[in-house]
């Protein structure tokens, strides 16, 4: 059983600031870092560092082609990571609040938004019944891959990030596992973000009763609902956050890797929570993701 993650690859331009820029304000940053990132590639690396067999599929530009080598060095199978000669690669501009570690992200999709139907078909040729498919919402073909993956007998994990209304046009009944933060959960439940997480879970589980639904709540931990268990609660591990970028991606990768290894739901949640707590203590996206041995230390 393998995991195919069809998702974004971005280069992150990261600026540490004493606050996130306000409308009309110009702020100088004394530090800029250029890091590998993208929700897709972060999740592939988290899956790999957690010990899973993961293949990444996606599209880079020649300007971001180094990301392919980077994923390969991580041990991710990159046969379906293509490089466009015509289109710039995706990038993100990330402001990090130097005090709280909270971030604010501007995305430029670039090549992530130009994936062709023929690449989708090629990737799906390698899908085997029982494989997992991991999807986020940063590429142009997410709904097509979701439907095709399900038709090929794959199990579908969907992290609808960043959330937008277009998600309601996706074939969401194909999803076996939703992983959502509170904003994405509120968006999908069509409720205000202040809604109690238990109410969000109740709405989402009524709408998608066959799926597992996991809602991450930052310092408040996470909730997982499945039809057979009801709600399971997981605490967060308190740490001093330096940079919260990719904390959710780390959670997703570790949770799914543990689940597919046969861990109980409780154990998978606990590992995901531990891994994301470590990730927020480090700067960067993909670079902040811990290795399995660090969790066992
Ligand atoms: O989830 C964090 C990621 O979101 C960043 O690495 C950035 O590239 C955006 O995709």
Question: What would you note in describing this structure?
Answer:
- The mean pLDDT is 97.
- The radius of gyration is 18 Å and the shape is globular.
- A hairpin with a 3-residue loop joins strand 12 and strand 13.
- It has a single domain, classed as Ribokinase (UDP-N-acetylmuramoyl-L-alanine:D-glutamate ligase), CATH 3.40.1190.
- It is of the alpha/beta class and 297 residues long.
- Helix 1 crosses helix 7, helix 5 crosses helix 6 and helix 7 runs antiparallel to helix 8.
- The site of alpha-D-ribofuranose has 15 residues, from strand 2, helix 1 and strand 7.
The CA-CA distance between the termini, in Å, is 27 Å
Question: How many domains is the backbone divided into?
Answer: 1
- SSE pattern: EEEHEHEEEHEHEEHHEEEHHH
Note the total helix count.
9
Q: Assembly state here?
A: single chain
Structural class: alpha/beta
Give me the CATH fold name: UDP-N-acetylmuramoyl-L-alanine:D-glutamate ligase
Enumerate the spans where pLDDT stays under 50 for 5 or more consecutive residues. Answer: none
Task: Please give the share of residues in helix.
Answer: 25-40%
Report the CATH architecture: 3-Layer(aba) Sandwich
Radius of gyration: 18 Å
- What is the global morphology? globular
Which small compounds were modeled alongside the protein? alpha-D-ribofuranose
Query: At the fourth CATH level, what is the homologous superfamily?
Result: Ribokinase
Mean pLDDT across all residues, rounded?
A: 97
């Amino acid at each position: 059983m393998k995991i195919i993650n069809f998702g974004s690859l971005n280069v992150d331009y990261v600026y540490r600031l004493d606050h996130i820029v306000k409308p009309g304000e110009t702020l100088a940053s004394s530090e800029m870092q250029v890091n590998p990132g993208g929700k897709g590639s972060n999740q592939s690396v988290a899956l790999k560092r957690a010990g899973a067999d993961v293949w990444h599929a996606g599209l880079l530009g020649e300007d971001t082609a180094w990301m392919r080598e980077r994923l390969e060095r991580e041990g991710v199978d990159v046969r379906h990571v293509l490089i466009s000669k015509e289109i710039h690669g995706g990038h993100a501009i990330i402001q990090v609040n130097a005090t709280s570690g909270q971030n604010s992200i501007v995305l430029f999709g670039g090549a992530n938004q130009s994936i062709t139907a023929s690449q989708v078909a090629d990737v799906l040729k390698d899908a085997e019944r029982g494989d997992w498919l991991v999807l986020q919402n940063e590429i142009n073909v997410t709904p097509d891959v979701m439907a095709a993956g399900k038709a090929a007998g794959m199990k579908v994990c969907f992290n609808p990030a960043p959330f937008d209304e277009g998600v309601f046009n996706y074939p969401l009944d194909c999803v076996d596992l939703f992983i959502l933060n509170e904003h994405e959960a509120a968006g999908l439940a069509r409720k205000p973000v202040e809604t109690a997480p238990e109410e969000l879970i109740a709405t989402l589980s009524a709408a998608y009763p066959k799926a597992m639904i996991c809602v991450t709540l930052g310092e408040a931990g996470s909730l997982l609902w499945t039809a057979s268990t009801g709600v399971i609660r997981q605490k967060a591990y308190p740490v001093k956050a330096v940079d919260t970028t990719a904390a959710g991606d780390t959670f997703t990768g570790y949770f799914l890797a543990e689940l597919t290894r046969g861990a109980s739901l409780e154990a998978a949640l606990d590992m995901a929570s531990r891994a994301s707590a470590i990730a927020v203590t480090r700067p960067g996206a993909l670079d902040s993701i811990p290795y399995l041995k660090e969790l066992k230390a």
